[in-house]
Amino acid sequence: MGKIAFVFPGQGAQAVGMGKDIYESESAAKQLFQRADEALGYSLSSIIFEGPDTELKITYHTQPALLTTSIAYLEAFKAKGLAPDYVAGHSLGEYSALVAAGVLSFEDAVRTVRARGEFMEQAVPSGQGAMAAVLGAEREALQKLCASVSHEVGAVELANLNCPGQIVISGSKEGVQAIAEQGKEIGAKRVIPLEVSGPFHSSLMKPASERLAGVLAEIDMQSAAVPVVANVTARPVQEPAEIRQLLVDQVHSSVLWEDSVAWLIEQGVDTFVEIGSGSVLAGLIKKIDRSVKVVSINSKEAIDQFQL
Fold first, then answer.
1. From 45, 70, 91, 197, the catalytic residue
2. How far apart are CA 198 and CA 171, in angstroms?
3. What is the three-class DSSP state of 109?
4. Would the CA dihedral through 103, 107, 110, 111 be positive or negative?
5. Which residue has the higher pLDDT, 196 or 242?
6. Active site residue 296
7. pLDDT tens profile 198-234
């Protein structure tokens, strides 16, 4: 039998009401939402279950909300007795992966991503940064265009390398706009602006990285029980010192999702279990390699029906 990877979604997968079914039906999951509320000192669970959407979309609520939902589904899913050979997460999802691998305690992770969200929100004044999804462009060509636009107009970089033909760019408002205007010249079919509060995963986020480093330095981390494939390197990490540094770098570096999935497949992973809200990662993984099996654990029903 092939190997199994558990993968966890990042920002953009949130939805008001996510996790409510598992909260109402599984006591272990219910306790997790309560533990998140206690760790943060306010009712995150009511923002998750009742919204409004505008409140849930605020980065420093979104990040702990998605982490809590993923770990709640993970707790309920554990009853199936399936253990992963590897774990990985997309951007914020890397923290869920680290909880799953026993590196971070749940409470520490919730507090850290709440702080991470605040730092990212505050790093660049509102309206000065932007992100956009570029569809249909080749990585190298887009990289070159970003370099010349950064030099002439304003910073813009590759933020998320999601799957073939889907790359998210991030940077100054002017830089992202210039790519939108010039994208067709390098074969981009569409450039879609994203609704985000800042230029995540770009060098403009370095102030947030520096502040996050201070928080991470204070947190107790264990060696990973299973290898965690890091966004920054698309390679496995298990030691706390290296994990800490990569989490700091991750805030201002590209998320190498396509490379991470390709590396996992090279190691013999043929089943990906996406755990948390939505099924964004399942879609990306299928675009990277149609032959692998992908299951989304995003409801009680999905857990009940699960079989390999």
1. 91
2. 8
3. helix
4. negative
5. 242
6. no
7. 999 999 999 999 999 999 999 999 999 999 999 999 9
